[in-house]
Specification:
The structure is a homodimer.
Chain A lengths: L3 E5 L5 E15 L4 E7 L4 E5 L2 E5 L3 H14 L6 E6 L4 H6 L7 E5 L3 H10 L1 H4 L7 E4 L3 H6 L5 E7 L13 H9 L1 E10 L10 H11 L2 E8 L7 E8 L9 H8 L10 H6 L5 H7 L6
Parallel strand pairs in A: 6-7, 6-9, 7-8, 9-10
Antiparallel strand pairs in A: 1-2, 2-3, 3-4, 4-5, 10-12, 11-12
Helix pairs in contact in A: 6-7
Chain lengths: ~290, ~290
């Protein structure tokens, strides 16, 4: 198919394809091939190697889910660590909270950050905030050598193949837990159970063995094969709906401009259908 | 692409493709071309003209949503009318309730019923129930000439193009409302707002002008382009979560075997994200 970008499931039996007007950027970084397409239905689409990463059409779903859900239920979110997420989308949401004092981003590939600033300025807009510090290094290596603790750790990573495999291992989850403050929260994207090529139940088993509270959130990611995506909320103490007044106050200042997240949706997004709870073998104690 | 079935959005800029092992049936009825593929990821896939209708992998999502939601909140569901749905999937769910006395199915194409009985016996399994009567005729014509009233009317139709256009018109919704009993409920599949080619907001405007209570339910349909699908619950009196004890009692006898629907999911499935509520211009009075 000419002028179509296609991504398939790992076993190549299901494909999602998006027609594009033009390939507007192509380069090879030290780590991956980077392409940006100007598509008809998604706006700009960022592709790393052969995987769609973000599009104008749906990036806000991912970024609003992975940030506002943990922040709203945490009394104090002073410092945040993001592993991956070089596009800056999660940071754009985080900097809306004035009470956050420090945001560290660990991105292995500086080219992703540069490309996002140039081609997705509305996604990268928070990267220049003075509270943000970027470490260009491997996420697993960073956390293993880190001496600080964080209130919130967000894993905004690619699929559990290739360089990101280490971000789905139990050892990594345990090290992250050790680097959380007393009321810490760990958030991660955790694939789809609909075409379960990455054994999502084993990911959730590891999370449940590591964190006392684990909730699965479902939201659609149009550009990922399977679309119906999961995110995991893992907490040492807080439930997923224990909204904190001070945070609701900050949230109220910008919430009318959010494109996906609202409090009603937040309160319901972790109520799973039988299909999801069976796939995930859901054991949360909440 | 050899051995791939592809369906695209109306403007052909987004495609979903499924690889198949074999085309196991192909025929031309009086109304449409009928094909069945044996796919790698979805099991059997029924295609009418060029549109995917049902697959083994996800048919239960659609059929459980469109039936259990209205039935559980209605004190008495004695007689049900289904327009479309010749595969029998909605009926399979309805016959689980012994309190339902009569189910009429209006399907324009008898070939769809025959094909479903042969190739999707687990979907068609309820069609032989003695409470079921099938009318092989046009849905709009049937309701316009019908003298009965129903407790529940379900529209299990194709997209609002071609023969199904009439099932999305305000006049049709009004006639359906006139054919509902006092506490009647109208359920329909109502497309996706993600690739909004059918002006979903105009569909919801018409529903809101016709029914006092309108709720939008979101659930994924893997085989439809866009995946994140909506269903509408339109009621004359009942709220979407006003569960009735007698119905919960019946439901309890089989609910552990359902693959999608559960009461927690039911209570949350109509809590829309900002994206959906903005697209749908949601005006429900509930």
């Amino acid at each position: 198919m000419n002028n179509w970008f296609s991504e398939s499931t790992l076993n190549d039996t299901v494909r999602s394809s998006f027609k594009y007007k033009a390939l507007i950027h192509e380069s090879q970084s030290d780590f991956q091939r980077i392409r940006i397409y100007d598509t008809y239905s998604l706006g700009r689409l960022l592709v790393l190697d052969d995987s769609a990463m973000i599009s104008d059409k749906d990036e806000f779903i991912y970024h609003e889910v992975i940030t506002h859900i943990p922040i709203l239920v945490q009394e104090q979110t002073k410092n945040v660590l993001i592993i991956g997420g070089g596009d800056g989308g999660a940071i754009r949401e985080l900097v809306k909270y004035k009470s956050i004092k420090s945001i560290e981003l660990v991105e292995i590939d500086s080219a992703v950050v540069d490309i996002s600033r140039e081609f997705f300025p509305h996604v990268a807009s928070g990267l220049n905030d003075q509270r943000v510090k970027i470490h260009y290094t491997d996420g697993v290596e960073f956390i293993n050598n880190c001496e600080k603790k964080y209130d919130l750790i967000i894993v905004d990573s690619t699929d559990p193949i290739g360089p990101a495999v280490g971000l789905y291992e139990k050892k990594f989850y345990e090290v992250c837990r050790e680097h959380l403050n007393e009321n810490g929260i760990f958030m991660a994207q955790t694939e789809t159970p609909l075409f379960d090529e990455y054994s999502i139940s084993s990911i959730y088993d590891k999370l449940n063995e590591t964190f006392p509270i684990v909730e699965t959130i479902c939201a659609p990611m149009l550009i990922y094969p399977g679309v119906y995506w999961t995110f995991s909320f893992c907490s040492l103490t807080e439930g997923i709906t224990s909204f904190k007044e001070n945070k609701l106050c900050e949230y109220g200042e910008f919430s009318s401009k959010l494109k996906w997240h609202n409090l009603d949706w937040h309160k319901s997004c972790f109520k799973l259908s039988n299909l999801f709870s069976a796939s995930i073998d859901y054991k949360s104690s909440l």
